[in-house]
Hints:
Layout: E1 22-31, E2 38-40, E3 54-64, E4 79-83, H1 94-113, E5 117-127, E6 153-154, H2 158-168, H3 172-176, E7 181-189, E8 199-202, E9 212-218, E10 223-229, E11 237-239, E12 247-255, E13 267-269, E14 283-292
Parallel strand pairs: 2-9, 3-11
Antiparallel strand pairs: 1-3, 4-12, 5-14, 6-10, 7-12, 7-14, 8-11, 8-13, 9-10
Amino acid sequence: MMTDRANLSLGADQPVRTLAAHVVAELNYYQPTPIRPVSYTFEPPLGVPWESGDYDVHRMEIHDARQLATRPRLQVEGFELWDASTEVSDFSDRASIEDVYYREARQLALAVTGAKQAYVFDHLLRRRAPRDNPLDFGKRGANGYAAANGRIHNDYTEESGQRRLALVIEDLHQREQITRFSIINMWRALNGPVQDAPLAICDARTVSSKELFHCDVRYPNRTGDIYLLQHCPQHRWFYYPTMRKEEVLIFKQYDSLHTNTSRFTPHSAFDLPTVPLDTPPRESIELRCLVTY
């Protein structure tokens, strides 16, 4: 588990670099309570809300990562932007995603991380709900798309990261040979350039384990475990304006290595303050990949 900000990542003994131009926007932080929060990915039982938990809205500076003098790195800040075109033209075709896009993602994951093996195990298509609806936790709509997730979260915890390894690599002997693994997320806009509900990423070096709280995510056949984030003024947020379909934002969701690297990178969709209400709703695909070193 992380201990404090000083040991979060490679280069953490260096000061956070001078920040770039920014927008000020609202982010939904978790307000801790004694009861563990729950979110449902399917219609919950009668009388049970889709999500529980209390959230505080904080107006935060979200900095333009394109204007940084030095590009962020996956192993330090926890995220990188790559130019990576795709051969997939129709993302409504699941077969093309699982055949072509998964193959492309494995190759990209190895190039970004320097790992030996890459295993793509999940993807999710999102379409932002109508803009007159506030951002929520991203529940799935009748159109089959999940909405944009406006709750600050990290998709894996210390425990669920380890469980995912066993789900991806079932052979016990093979798992025992692994000395380190990571889980990364690859986020691509499908109707860029993105103006509606872009993705904000928190610099992993500015996050403490004391600010991360477990949340259950209920699926029809299992319960997942993610982190929500409590507010701290030290958090430093970034985004890439007007992301194109040819770009992929790659960020760390878990790392089994406890020192000298980023481990968790909280993130959230947010509303840019000056975007017209008739802006087309953002569509995106996110893909999760486990890599072994």
